[in-house]
Amino acid sequence: RGSGGSSNAGSTTNNKTGQVSHSVAEKQRRDRINTLIDELRELVPIDFETAEIQPYGDDPSKRPKHVVLSDTIKFVRNTRARQLAEQKEKDRVMAVDAEAVGEDRGNCAAASVKKETEGLDSTSQCSNGELPSRKGLDTGAARATAARKRVGSMNSDSSQGSDTHTLDTNDSENTNIEISVGALQEDCKFSVNVNGKDRNGLLHDITRGLKSMGLEIKTAVIKTEATGVVSDTFEVDRSYCKLTPDEVKLQLTEVLHEAQAGPGLDKRKRTDVT
Questions:
Q1: Domains, the chain, ordered by start
Q2: pLDDT tens across 147-185, in order?
């Protein structure tokens, strides 16, 4: 009896100290794991490539634990790979060198060149932000037999749904260049139009100025007349640009002014005079 009394006393002591037996702790651990696996079973889509030959193919809720974990790993890997690919593509677009904008490298699969019936204008538009070479456009325009003046029409009101602000840069260093910037109805998009006398490097200076403000060129319509007058219209994504249309207009004007005032200005002035 004395021995039995000691045993009961020891059992009582263990209960008072709150100690949990190993078997109870193990059961609690398994229950927690099973609960988490049940959540994954509901959240993670089934891998139908392997499920078609499995008995649980018609009822994903019956997936075994090891299958749930396998599907989870595959789902996470695929999601991560997709995110990395999207980020890489985004970085590639943002890192495009402005020097390559004027080169036609054949990367614009959606590019199409349109010529008007009299061959006066050459138009090229691409949907991925890369622009065709100005050189090819000027060659087509030089063969035109007559010129139609479009400068007046480009100064008219912009298309319906656009809030357009126009600035004439009448500075002697940047003669005959007109810039207009409009906020399109589509979210996060501007329409930028540059109209005036063409010069060497003008297209490069425009695209360089737009990209320096964080504007991503989505589409471009480039027109060159036989008289040397150009009308370039760009649709740009302003997701990474906090500037207003007026601010974009002013900054682009400054870029073109600085480029025009760079080396070779005197030579261009003499050419214009003659």
A1: 20-94 (4.10.280), 98-273 (no CATH)
A2: 334 433 434 443 434 444 444 444 444 457 899 999 887
